[in-house]
Amino acid sequence: MQHKDDERCAEFRPRSILIVGCGLIGASAAYALRERLGHACVIDGVEKSEEHRTILLRSGRFTNVFSALPAPEQKYDLAILALPVSTAVQFMHKVSQLADILMDVCSVKLPLCHAAQALHLEERFAPTHPMAGLASEGPLEATADLFTNRSWLTIEGWPAAERLRTLIESIGADFGTVASAEQHDSLMAVVSHGIHLTSLASMLAYQDMKETLPALSAKYCGPGFRDVTRLAASPSGFWTSTLLFNRVQTATHLKKVINELEHFVDVLEQGDEIRLKEALEKSRAARLLWETEKGNTSNV
Q1: pLDDT at 10
Q2: Plot region of 138 (φ>0 → left; ψ -120 to 50 → alpha; else → beta)
Q3: Where along the chain do its domains lie?
Q4: Selection from 205, 178, 204 nearest residue 192 by Cα
């Protein structure tokens, strides 16, 4: 008789997949899974945008693309919630009835885990977060290699997430684990959500400066400006839900960013060359340390 732990570790190769929400991440997951699993696997999508449904069907990667959830009689081996956090929580119950395993790809984990626990989905729900994306949205930007060499985080203590390890690794991602949903969301506040708002703040400051400096225009902007403000082009719908659900941790980190900026303001206003050089060298050393850590780590 096969033990339960052995069953959990066995390779999970789905024959049918439902992806709810076929924007950049959902469509890219479909493209990657189609390349890995071939056309023997049914890959259906749910996408409310008629324009996006047309694009998805023309891609040839989907078996069907629906405008609403399939009937409860339709069953899948795996369902993926590729939706904003609030919508994923809202749809979790209905989608869980359509699949043996349900996973999400949201960048905030605590509300998803709480919702799954309330629905008694501890054995069938996989809280995951691929650390991949672009500043644009929609299936037109989707690619099968979006997840290649990118960390795909999961939360410890959720058996279904471990069952998906082989499948996640098969599309080129680095399978990683985080100790808890709380820790995941605190980490994302620092490395993603706070960074996003810092980028937006830089873009808004530029726009405000145009009122007092009319000559300011794109032709004067170099690669540094483009790199720092790139995230300002991101879709607001996704980020509104994400940031509100992780607002406490993100606000805490932003206060630290503000403290660092205020230090630079004080140093500049004082014309203190020594303190300025110290701050520049400190930040450079921190960046070099990060590059070393990144080089020594294949996943989180």
Answers
A1: 59
A2: left
A3: 4-180, 185-296
A4: 178
- The reported pLDDT for the residue numbered 256 is 98
Q: Using CB atoms within 10 A of its CB, is residue 257 exposed (0-12), middle (13-18) or buried (19+)?
A: middle
Residue showing tokens 């990667």: 61
Adjacent-strand bridge partners of 80: 19, 103
- Ranges under pLDDT 70 in the chain: 1-10, 297-300
- For the CA atoms of 85, 86, 87, 89, the dihedral, rounded to the nearest 10 degrees, stands at 80
pLDDT computed for residue 297 by the predictor: 65
Dihedral sign for Cα 184, 11, 40, 16, please.
Answer: negative
Please, how many CA atoms are within 13 Å of residue 81, restricted to the half-sphere of its CB?
A: 33
Q: Is 177 exposed, middle or buried (0-12, 13-18, 19+ CB in 10 A)?
A: middle
At residue 101, the pLDDT reads: 98
CA atoms within 13 A on the CB side of 24: 16
Q: Does domain 185-296 have CATH number 1.20.120.680?
A: no
Orientation angle between helical segments 236-245 and 247-270, nearest 10 degrees: 100
- pLDDT for the residue numbered 6: 46
CB atoms within 10 A of CB 278: 12
pLDDT at position 192? 96
Question: What's the pLDDT at 8?
Answer: 47
Q: Give Cα 165 distance to the centre of its chain.
A: 17
Range list of β-strands (E), 118-186? 125-130, 151-155, 174-178
The fold for domain 4-180 equals Rossmann fold (3.40.50)
DSSP string, 3-35: -HHHHHHS----SEEEEE--SHHHHHHHHHHHH
